[in-house]
């Protein structure tokens, strides 16, 4: 009976595990395999035989100055997106607990609408809002006396383009954080918050010393999800900067891998970039979880 009860959960999980194995493990295996081969358009068309390169593709990547620059850019951009998303989502989650039912419903509806909007649609809308000729943002800033924004192209400059993409990424990502953290806050016993308020703690002090520690498991989930999503941003960069910006100034690793694999037909290099991204995300996730365990947190 004990053996039966031990294996029962795995029996129920088996169909899902088989499906995930087919959808995830096999593509990862193929990605890793191609990254060790010489696999270009010549091999795809059958004009040249496929040859084993070992770690040659990885060595070529790390010798490439552009790859190192794009890697650093991706890390910094993802970090900024994660911090902005978490700050916005947590702040609005706290706001939801302070407003009445009707404003709360309006904010939740607007946020879920942003969350449900496809990335291509959202990126196109944000491009229109900041369009130098017809966008309302430039017109509004100009009317406020900022004449430098008259006909200003936000996607021409590298940093303003990244800022514009960051705003769109945060706009479509913060609802997940907001809803999740709001649900966690509602589960915090009201007596605990009332006791902290009676002791004279400010709202920021209550959040930092009481609410946030109790929400630690939820914050772990939303942080890891945000890191994974923002590190592999593709659609927003590709659509809003027209494939990576002028001379590739707004490239991130996902777009760079796409260019290598499909624009240059260097499928092995594109696969190697994908493997590097996978290893980085895996390392960040494991390091973060290990740090929490070392601090005595239950995951």
From TrEMBL:
<feature type="transmembrane region" description="Helical">
    <location>
        <begin position="159"/>
        <end position="185"/>
    </location>
</feature>
<dbReference type="InterPro" id="IPR035906">
    <property type="entry name" value="MetI-like_sf"/>
</dbReference>
<keyword id="KW-0472">Membrane</keyword>
<feature type="transmembrane region" description="Helical">
    <location>
        <begin position="206"/>
        <end position="228"/>
    </location>
</feature>
<dbReference type="Pfam" id="PF00528">
    <property type="entry name" value="BPD_transp_1"/>
</dbReference>
<keyword id="KW-0813">Transport</keyword>
<comment type="similarity">
    <text>Belongs to the binding-protein-dependent transport system permease family.</text>
</comment>
<feature type="transmembrane region" description="Helical">
    <location>
        <begin position="12"/>
        <end position="29"/>
    </location>
</feature>
<keyword id="KW-1133">Transmembrane helix</keyword>
<dbReference type="GO" id="GO:0055085">
    <property type="term" value="P:transmembrane transport"/>
</dbReference>
<dbReference type="GO" id="GO:0005886">
    <property type="term" value="C:plasma membrane"/>
</dbReference>
<dbReference type="InterPro" id="IPR050809">
    <property type="entry name" value="UgpAE/MalFG_permease"/>
</dbReference>
<keyword id="KW-0762">Sugar transport</keyword>
<keyword id="KW-0812">Transmembrane</keyword>
<dbReference type="InterPro" id="IPR000515">
    <property type="entry name" value="MetI-like"/>
</dbReference>
<feature type="domain" description="ABC transmembrane type-1">
    <location>
        <begin position="71"/>
        <end position="288"/>
    </location>
</feature>
<keyword id="KW-1003">Cell membrane</keyword>
<feature type="transmembrane region" description="Helical">
    <location>
        <begin position="105"/>
        <end position="129"/>
    </location>
</feature>
<feature type="transmembrane region" description="Helical">
    <location>
        <begin position="70"/>
        <end position="96"/>
    </location>
</feature>
<feature type="transmembrane region" description="Helical">
    <location>
        <begin position="267"/>
        <end position="289"/>
    </location>
</feature>
<protein>
    <submittedName>
        <fullName>Sugar transporter</fullName>
    </submittedName>
</protein>
């Amino acid at each position: 009976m004990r053996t039966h009860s031990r294996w029962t959960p795995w029996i129920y999980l088996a169909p899902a595990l088989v499906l995930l194995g087919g959808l995830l493990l096999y593509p990862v295996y193929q990605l890793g395999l191609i990254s060790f081969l010489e696999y270009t358009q010549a091999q795809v068309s059958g004009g040249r035989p496929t040859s084993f390169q070992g770690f040659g593709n990885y060595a070529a990547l790390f010798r490439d100055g552009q790859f190192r620059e794009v890697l650093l850019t991706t890390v910094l951009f993802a970090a900024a997106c994660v911090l902005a998303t978490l700050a916005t989502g947590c702040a609005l989650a706290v706001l939801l607990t302070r407003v009445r039912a009707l404003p709360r419903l309006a904010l939740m509806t607007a946020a879920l609408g942003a969350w449900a909007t496809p990335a291509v649609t959202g990126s196109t809308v944000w491009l229109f809002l900041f369009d130098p000729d017809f966008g309302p943002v430039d017109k509004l800033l100009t009317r406020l006396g900022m004449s430098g924004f008259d006909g200003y192209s936000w996607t021409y400059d590298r940093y303003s383009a990244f800022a514009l993409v960051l705003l769109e990424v945060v706009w479509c990502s913060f609802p997940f954080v907001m809803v999740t953290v709001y649900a966690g806050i509602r589960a915090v016993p009201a007596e605990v918050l009332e006791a902290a308020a009676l002791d004279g703690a400010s709202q920021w002090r209550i959040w930092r010393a009481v609410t946030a520690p109790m929400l630690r498991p939820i914050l772990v989930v939303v942080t890891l999800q945000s890191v994974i999503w923002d590190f592999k941003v593709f659609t927003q960069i590709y659509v809003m900067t027209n494939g990576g910006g002028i001379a590739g100034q707004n490239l991130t690793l996902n777009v760079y891998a796409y260019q290598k694999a499909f624009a240059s037909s260097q499928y092995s290099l594109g696969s190697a970039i994908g493997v590097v991204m996978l290893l980085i995300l895996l390392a960040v996730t494991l390091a973060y979880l290990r740090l929490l365990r070392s601090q005595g947190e239950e995951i």
